Amino acid sequence: MRESTPLDRVAGAHDAAVLAVARRGDPVSRAGLAQALQVTPQAISKILGRLMDRGLIAEIGTVAAGPGKPTTFYRIVPSSRRAIGLHLTRARVHGVVVDLTGEILERRELEIGRLQPVDELIATLTEQARDLAQVGQGELLGVGLGMPGPVDWSEGVYRGSAQPDPWRGAPLRRLLAQELSLPVLLDHDSRAALVGEAWSQPGLLDDAALVLVEDGLGAALCLGGMIVRGAHSQAGEVGHTVVRLGGVPCSCGRRGCAQAEHRAALEAGDEEYAAQVLATVVVDLVRLVDVDRVVLGGRAVYAQHERTMDAIRAALEEGLRAEPWVHVEVMLSTRGTDLIAVGSACEVLEHEYGLPQALVGPG
Ligand SMILES: [Zn+2]
């Protein structure tokens, strides 16, 4: 992959902005895009020309509306590009291949059964990705891999937990890119999930938190339209905030962490307390970063979602009673169990434009 220059990145961001409007589905016009993106029609012409040269956008016809020049309409070409998304957990790999609009073309799920050593794991992921690469048409841009943290997004390394962990320190991004000869992107499951959800609900999640409850409990933040990562790719690690002093021991060494309390409650069959733990986490998060939407996702949420959503809404109402001007909408993810895999694939699509330096190709 060619090194990108600052000018490429500016052009990439413009192209990405036009594609983001076009992928909402309706045909777009030069004047409509100029208005939506607050740039001149001349600039839009240049961007559209670039996108058409690359086969990403196509002209679909002209419509005459009164006197004057007829309006030309364009639409995105979904089949022009593809990306693969893999959601890795200790138990399984859930994979999807998506088109340029983020629509799923195919999904595959593979139970791993046991904790594989790194070389075996890479072989498993490679096989899954190669299998998905057979589906659909259009250029395959790369593979996004989303997994529970701690993950170093910029280095492409799984940092691992304090427990004995065969994957700790593994440069998963580089190893997988070498095997596949494709660009690979590695990210936290919660952040991939937030990107996936933002693609499903364009423009709605500019100030939002996604709380993900799988084996662990984490969150991802989008503030002012930007995904927040933090100094060590650790922003949003709400699973290790303490909800009960002197509570259940946690793998991190402390006691009463939200993640440990939540898991212990579910294991004891106390769904009400589990829901309260999640509600506490959400209210604290809203207090800390001032978001207007909270999305809940993850396998452990879907099973109990009604009770959990009720508990969170009640806790927010109680917690924000003194500030009636603060409105927070709590939503369930629209993507179900595909959420993290789809989000990982959408991250690859995004980085093709806005931030191409984040993708690391082979060699
Ligand atoms: Zn902890």
TrEMBL record:
Keywords: Kinase, Transferase. One of its GO terms (molecular function) is kinase activity. Residues 19-58 form the HTH marR-type domain. Gene3D superfamilies: 3.30.420.40, Winged helix-like DNA-binding domain superfamily/Winged helix DNA-binding domain. InterPro entries: ATPase_NBD, HTH_MarR-typ, ROK, ROK_cs, WH-like_DNA-bd_sf, WH_DNA-bd_sf. The keyword Transferase applies. It comes from the Bacteria. Belongs to the ROK (NagC/XylR) family. PANTHER family: BIFUNCTIONAL UDP-N-ACETYLGLUCOSAMINE 2-EPIMERASE_N-ACETYLMANNOSAMINE KINASE, ROK (REPRESSOR, ORF, KINASE) FAMILY. This is NBD/HSP70 family sugar kinase. It comes from Brachybacterium fresconis.
